[in-house]
Amino acid sequence: MAPTSLPDISSRFTFRNWTQGGFFYKEAAGELGVPGQVKKHRDEDAQDDLRGDSGEHAGHLIGIQFGAPGGVENMGLQNPNMNTYAPRRLQEVLRGHGASFYELEMKWRKKLLQKPPSRISVVVQDKYKVGENRPFARWVEWEETTPDNKKQPPQVERFGNFNSPQQMEAMGQSPGRATNNGNGGTLLRFRPRR
């Protein structure tokens, strides 16, 4: 039987925003809690408000499964194919199954659920152009402390938050086909100059 009251660790996460040059940054940081063993905080109203009719996800910088707050301070508009697996109908256009950020979260989850567990601390930054409400890039640095208390070197991953076919459909645009197999445009072969 699952415990009725899981610990609330949301206060261990920090959030900050700043502008530098022509860019706005939104950052979340903290040590991840073990999924299923910490209280989840979802703010569906904040997600709906941020997402609107954009076709995008109101994705969390640090997932609520890890105990992070669910409010707007921890969200950004995110390509849904980065946040989850892409629908089969889009996999040819995207040239893969997507889910790049989701797969990183699943990697963390696996390490936290192993017996004995690792500890994982993360810093996640979304980068926006000043005046825009959708980040175009996400930078993640994470550090693992193994069960035998050894700190691993920090790892850095970068994710492009490109416009999605779902966003284009929501805006009334029709995404073009990306490959000849989809009867799209002709693929050009680039030849080196002689």
- Quaternary structure: single chain
Using the alpha-carbon principal axes, give the shape. globular
Overall structural domain count = 1
Helix content: 10-25%
Strand order of the largest sheet: 1-2-5-6-7
Q: Describe the biggest sheet?
A: 5 strands, antiparallel
**What is the β-strand count?**
7
Low-confidence stretches: 94-99, 179-188
Order of helices and strands: EEHEEHHHEEEH
Q: What is the count of helical runs?
A: 5
The end-to-end span amounts to: 72 Å
Class from helix and strand fractions: alpha+beta
Strand coverage percent:
25-35%
What's the alpha carbon Rg, rounded to whole Å? 19 Å
Mean pLDDT: 80
Quick structural gist:
This protein starts with 13 loop residues before the first strand and ends in a 24-residue tail after the last helix. It is built from five helices and seven strands.
Question: What do these coordinates show?
Answer:
The protein is of the alpha+beta class and 194 residues long. It has one domain. Strand 5 and strand 6 (137-145) form a beta hairpin. It has helices at residues 44-51, 80-83, 91-94, 100-113, 165-170; strands at 14-20, 23-31, 57-60, 75-78, 119-129, 137-145, 155-160. The chain has a 5-stranded antiparallel beta sheet with strand order 1-2-5-6-7, with helices on one face. The chain has a two-stranded antiparallel sheet with strand order 3-4. It is 19% helix and 26% strand. The radius of gyration is 19 Å and the shape is globular. It starts with 13 loop residues before the first strand and ends in a 24-residue tail after the last helix.
